[in-house]
Amino acid sequence: MSRSRLIIVGGGFSMGSSYFYLEFLLAWLTILHKAGYRNPAIFALEYTLVPDEKYPTQLEQTVAGFDHVCSIVKDSSRVCLAGDSAGATLQLSLLLRMSKSSNPLKRRPGFATLISPWATLVTPKNRDTPSDYLNADSLHLYGRQYAGTVAKLKDPLVSPGMCKDREWWIRAAPSGGFCFMYGSEEVFGPEVRDLIALLRRSGCAVRVREEPGQVHAWPVVSLFLADTRAERTKGLKDLMKMITQVIDPNDVHIDGM
User: Fold this and answer.
1) What is the dihedral of CA 142, 169, 211, 5, to 10 degrees?
2) Distance between CA atoms of 236 and 43, rounded to whole angstroms?
3) What number is the average pLDDT over the span 222-247?
4) For residues 18 and 36, is the Cβ–Cβ distance under 8 A?
5) C-alpha 15 chain-centroid distance
6) Kindly report the CA angle at 188 between 153 and 133, in degrees rounded to 5?
7) How distant is the alpha carbon of residue 82 from its chain centre?
8) What is the pLDDT of residues 154-208, one digit of tens each?
9) Higher model confidence: residue 2 or residue 104?
10) Cα–Cα distance list, 176 to 29, 36, 51, 213, 237 (Å)
């Protein structure tokens, strides 16, 4: 396979599954093919939801999922992370966690795509907007349930936006950098912008698409709710434009699979 993408789905840690995202994942796979990637593979992580389990279970499952993908492709740089909302939170936590491992370079993914990341679980900056369908109070409740204790909400491995250590982010960054996509009207907007600014000050490669007038996880929402094919796939196609700037579809490695 040329590239593998580990998808970590969202849902506030308490709802949703990879099965709910199946149409979105199949559409993404089709667009990857059309963009010229040979034999791409998508692995969708199914992690345990709150309240059945809380941190660190979901992060441990994410680490296990990443290691499983790496065991297949044999090269972590060929793995591209992707996730939306709480899935993007776990993606950021994974990167911070792996950067502290004994040999972080051997576990460094090639790229990270973050759709509307829930950077800081509980913060006054997460505020309701007239357009977004999310509610900040409900999200903070889910965040507290996931963390388990108030003290853990300050832990960057639980709430990645709490990490202000530039050196840590440099070590955690994928080799090809980050790609952010979010809506200008979403609850998480201020925290997403703060994280992007911090990563850029740290010297990390960051590509950003803030969609005017859009809400949380708009590429996913549009695929399910938009009226036309063009509107439904716009978010994914916009993502692909940013991804192909970093990962050349012609730069592939065939491993005999």
Assistant:
1) -80
2) 17
3) 93
4) no
5) 17
6) 115
7) 4
8) 999 999 999 999 999 999 999 999 999 999 999 999 999 999 999 999 999 999 9
9) 104
10) 20, 19, 35, 29, 19
What pLDDT sits at residue 169? 98
Structure token digits, residue 231: 């509107």
At what angle are helices 229-246 and 22-34 packed, to 10 degrees? 60
The one-letter amino acid at 108: R
Sign of the torsion formed by the C-alpha atoms of 83, 99, 66 and 106:
positive
Q: Can you tell me the distance from the alpha carbon of 257 to that of 58, in angstroms, rounded to the nearest whole number? A: 30
Lay out the sheet containing 111-115: strands in order across.
41-45, 4-8, 79-84, 111-115, 178-183, 206-211
Determine the Cα–Cα distance for residues 127 and 136; give it in Å rounded to an integer. 6
Gyration radius of the chain's alpha carbons: 17
Provide the residue type at 213 as one letter: G
DSSP string, 143-209: HHHHH-STGGGG-TTTSGGG---HHHHHHHS-TT-EEEEEETTSTTHHHHHHHHHHHHHTT--EEEE
Output the CA torsion sign for 195, 214, 223, 143: positive
- Between the two ends of the chain, the Cα-to-Cα distance in Å is 6
Burial status of residue 1 (CB atoms within 10 A of its CB: 0-12, 13-18, 19 or more): middle
Residues forming a β-bridge with 6: 43, 81
Beta carbons of 215 and 244 less than 8 angstroms apart: no
Q: pTM of the full predicted structure?
A: 0.94
